[in-house]
User: Fold this.
Amino acid sequence: MGEQIEAAFSDPAPEPDCSDRRAVIDYMVEGQRPFEGTHPFDEAGLRVLVGQVFDRTNDMAASMTNHWMLEGGDPIRARLGQVGAPTLVLHGTEDPLVPIGHGKALADEIPGAVLIPLEGVGHQMPPRQVWEVVIPAILAHTAISATEAGRSSE
Assistant:
């Protein structure tokens, strides 16, 4: 992982009061900055999204820490070749947490997988600047998947 991400993990910001909507939004927005690529940071859009998440979440404290509940489990790399579902891998070329090489390796290991590198994207939801790549790729992928599913049920 990149130096900026290592710093964010080694010296995290103090968690906000989870009952304070503005404090949670500020915390979550600032927490995303180190993960971004070179596309302009859409702070206003992210604030709206995080506000919606806050408004629909029953337990914000649990929601903000649910990533840390995951456990490692058994290695799965040897099983990736058994994936039979059509697979689309969207991966940022500037991902500072999980570099693009990981996306390439994943696509190489899954039979028939398609990798779409997202130029300038970090470890984030695809920003608007790449929607012209992401949306057609997902539509084409799901149309093929739906067609294949229909054939297999006949």
Remarks:
- Residues 131-152 form the longest helix (22 residues).
- The two ends are 46 Å apart (CA to CA).
- The chain has two domains: 3-69, 77-152.
